[in-house]
Automatic annotation (TrEMBL):
Listed PANTHER family: PROHIBITIN (PTHR23222), PROHIBITIN 1 (PTHR23222:SF0)
Protein name (record): Prohibitin family protein
UniProt keyword terms in alphabetical order: Coiled coil, Membrane, Transmembrane, Transmembrane helix
Domain Band: residue ranges: 26-191
GO cellular component: membrane
Transmembrane stretches, start-end: 12-31
Annotated organism of origin: Okeania hirsuta
InterPro entries from the UniProt entry: Band_7, Band_7/SPFH_dom_sf, Prohibitin
Length: 277
């Protein structure tokens, strides 16, 4: 005869064992380093400090622990828009490194829930407002030339704003700044005009220096001629005539012609050469 009691006992034992495992898993909770938890019992949030890393015992089935990563989070925000002091449209891309404060996790859970919601509902909107404040203090071009000043204002504003929600800003970085196509074109045209003006100024300075050099050379030559003339004058008029002759002479001796009918043409250069031989 088949004994049906053994399978039933085995089934009951298996169920009890499974229930015990579930109870243990639901009773004991381990939070890893960098994690914190907010406990809810029957849907009600437990006030006070959140649960920190380590082993915790909770009531099974009626308790729930909302885990949060309390390490530094990096969030890159694209498409921040604002108007500059001279009413030009500016678009920016920034990086915000932030950390949720464990003491504020209860309020964060009640207000926005998860960490993803912290980004969307806290970090991004406050970054947008902080960028508007920073951009309004500078002209569009100064957003590039005075980048440090822009980020200093941005940092001060976003730190103050996020601190109200229990979020600590660790660091920020301005990745990129862009302008409207019209303004970018005007900046490019201005740079080209400045380059042309600089080149024209350089050419003018170079011409002025060359002209001054020519004047100085002319003055020097005139002074040398004056001193030489005074020297020759002091030595007599013959030396002056000789100097003028030598300056105009091409280095060739003249041809000599006789005055009779039988014309005689003498080449003085050849005569001088024969005498030398």
């Amino acid at each position: 005869m088949l004994n049906v009691e053994n399978p039933i006992k085995i089934g009951i034992a298996a169920l009890l064992g499974l229930f015990g495992i579930v109870m243990l898993r639901s009773t004991f909770l381990i939070l890893q380093p960098g994690e914190a938890g907010v406990l809810q019992v029957l849907g009600s949030v437990r006030e006070g400090e959140p649960m920190r890393e380590g082993l915790h015992i909770i009531l099974p089935f009626v308790s729930k622990v909302n885990k949060y990563d309390i390490r530094v989070q990096k969030h890159q925000i694209n498409g921040l828009t604002a108007a500059s002091k001279d009413l030009q449209d500016i678009t920016a891309e920034v990086v915000v490194n932030y950390q949720v404060q464990p003491s504020e996790l209860v309020n964060i859970l009640r207000d926005v829930g998860t960490l993803d919601n912290v980004k969307e509902k806290y970090v991004e909107p406050q970054a947008q407002e902080a960028f508007k404040i920073a951009s309004a203090k500078l002209k569009a071009e100064e957003s590039v030339t005075k980048r440090e000043e822009l980020m200093e204002t941005f940092n001060g504003s976003i730190i103050e704003r996020l601190q109200k929600f229990g979020i600590r800003v660790v660091a920020t970085a301005l990745v990129d700044v862009d302008f409207s196509p019209e303004f970018s074109k005007s900046v490019e045209e201005k740079q080209i005009a400045e380059q042309k003006a600089q080149k024209a100024k350089y050419i003018a300075q170079e011409a002025e220096q060359e002209a001054q050099a020519m004047i100085n050379r002319a003055k020097g030559k005139a002074e040398a001629n004056r001193l030489e003339a005074e020297s020759l004058k002091a030595q007599g008029s013959e030396l002056v005539i000789q100097k003028l002759f030598l300056e105009s002479w091409d280095g060739k001796l003249p041809l000599v012609m006789s005055g009779n009918e039988d014309t005689l043409l003498l080449d003085m250069n050849k005569l001088v050469d024969s005498d030398k031989r």
